[in-house]
Amino acid sequence: TFLTGYMCQPPSAEGGLFQAIIRDAKPPREHIEKIVQFWDTATTTKTYSDCSAMVEMWKLTNGRGYVAKVLNLRKSPSDVTDIMIHEYARAEQETGHRPTLAIEAAQAGQNYADFVRRLSGLHVYMHKLGGHGIGSGRRGPMDLADRASAAVHFFNEGIVFFPREYESWYETAVNQMRA
Question: What are the two backbone dihedrals, phi and then psi, of residue 66, each rounded to the nearest 5 degrees?
Answer without folding.
Answer: -115, 125
